[in-house]
Every structure is written in C-alpha cells, then in structure tokens.
Specification:
- The protein has one domain: Serine Threonine Protein Phosphatase 5, Tetratricopeptide repeat.
- By secondary structure, the protein is an all-alpha fold.
- The chain has nine helices and no strands.
- The longest helix is centred in the last third of the chain and has 20 residues.
- The relative contact order is 0.16.
- It binds adenosine-5'-diphosphate (ADP) and magnesium ion (MG).
- The site of adenosine-5'-diphosphate has 24 residues, from helix 3, helix 5, helix 6 and helix 9.
Length: 215
C-alpha cells in the first residue's frame, strides 16, 4: 500500500494533457508577454501526442518508467522550442531514476522529481532565480524531500511538491530573466510570470491529483 504504480503514471499523463489543454491560452499569454507566445501550443501539442501514444500502446507500458520514457520520447519529437528538449530530458532522467520498479514509495518519488530537475539543469544550465522552470522544479524537489524525510505518504509528498512548484512559479513574477528568450527583455520581464515555471506547477499538480485519485 501507499505506492504509486503504472496506472498512476498513466493517470498523471492524462491529467497533465487535460490541465495543459485547459490552461493553453493562459500559457500562450504568459509566453507572449516575455517570449514568443508558443509555450501553451507547444505543450498542448506535445501532451496530445503523448496521450495518443498511450492510448495506442497502453498494454506495453508495464512500469512507471515505461510511461515516463514514452513521455520523454514524444515531447522531444513534438514540442520543439526550448521547453521540448528540457521537459524531454526531465522525463527521460525521471524514467531512468525509477527504472525497473513496479511501484514507487516516497523516496522513489523524490528521486524521480530530483532527477527531472537535475536533467533540466544539466541541459539548460539555469540556476534558481534565473526566472525559468527551474524556479518551480527546485522548491518542488526540496519540499518533496522534506515531506518524505518526515514520513509523509506518496500523496502528501506530491502535494508538497505541487504546492511548492506553484509558489515557486509565482515567485518568478518580480525576477529579471537570465536564461531563454525572456533574458533579452532585461527589466521589462519584471512583473510577468515565467511560462515554463507555471506549466511545471500544472504538471506537478496533475501528479498529485493523479495520486490522490487512487487513495
Ligand atoms: P521557446 O522559448 O523556445 O519559445 P517555450 O516557449 O516552449 O520555448 O518555453 C519557454 C520556457 O522554457 C521558459 O518559460 C522557461 O521556463 C524555459 N526555459 C528556457 N530556457 C531555459 C533554460 N536554459 N533552462 C531552463 N528553462 C528554460
Ligand atoms: Mg516560447
């Protein structure tokens, strides 16, 4: 009991596609303000492709790692831009971190999230405070680790991660960007939320909701 299985990973993917579709226009608007306006479309296209693949091939997905690997492959081939390779690397590293396991305990969930964040940092070289998706991932990993160390359930670990990611996304509002397109704007980026940090918060909220659905 208290573990996250392959069905959770599939629910996470479907819930992510749903929330990205629901927030597509908002993510486009955020990216129009400090980027080129395609972030919502990029992610929506990517997660639609992921769900199509899951629908076509669900029987072949036997571990959470299989699901995460499929997400990585589809995002890398369909999303493009900066965020495609970044999220693709995140899911690929997450998949490798939990490879071989049928079900994930709280520590494995933390390892999954930490590997995702580390993959993004390895690929994009952004540090916390650079006004990127790293500003949502990093507090999420920290909060998940603290919750797990305190004996929290998998659901509570993901709840902690999701809440911290949303707070981290909101904390990008006053920042100047040091990576990505928004870095060309200098102080004009102040007052606008980073789109990739906000989409990260939606993705992690979907993970927590998908876990709560099984509990
Ligand atoms: P593009 O910037 O190529 O149009 P998207 O609009 O899909 O790509 O994604 C933009 C998001 O990518 C930003 O909001 C930011 O969160 C993230 N991003 C951009 N560059 C980096 C980087 N070097 N490291 C981490 N995240 C980054
Ligand atoms: Mg963009």
């Amino acid at each position: 009991m208290g573990m996250l299985d392959t069905a959770w990973a599939v629910r996470w993917v479907r819930a992510t596609a749903a929330t990205v579709a629901e927030h597509r226009a908002e993510l486009v608007t955020l990216d129009r303000e400090i980027g080129d306006g395609d972030h919502g479309e990029n992610l929506d296209r990517g997660f639609r492709a992921v769900v199509e693949s899951v629908d076509a091939d669900e029987d072949s997905l036997t571990t959470p790692a299989d699901v995460l690997k499929l997400v990585a492959t589809k995002l890398i081939s369909t999303v493009g831009g900066a965020s495609g390779p970044l999220f693709g690397t995140a899911y690929l590293k997450a998949s490798q971190a939990v490879g071989g396991r049928d079900a994930l305990d709280p520590e494995a969930v933390v390892a999954l999230l930490a590997a995702a964040r580390d993959g993004i940092v390895m690929r994009g070289k952004a540090q916390p405070g650079d006004k990127t998706m790293v500003d949502a991932w990093t507090p999420a990993v920290d909060a998940a680790g603290e919750a797990s160390a305190a004996g929290a359930s998998v659901v509570a670990v993901l709840e902690a991660a999701a809440s911290a990611a949303q707070a981290g996304a909101e904390a990008t509002d006053p920042l100047v960007a040091h990576k990505g397109r928004a870095s060309y704007l200098g102080e004009r980026a102040i007052g606008h939320r980073d789109p990739g940090a906000q989409s990260t918060a939606y993705i992690l909220r979907a993970a927590a909701d998908a876990a709560a659905d099984a509990a």
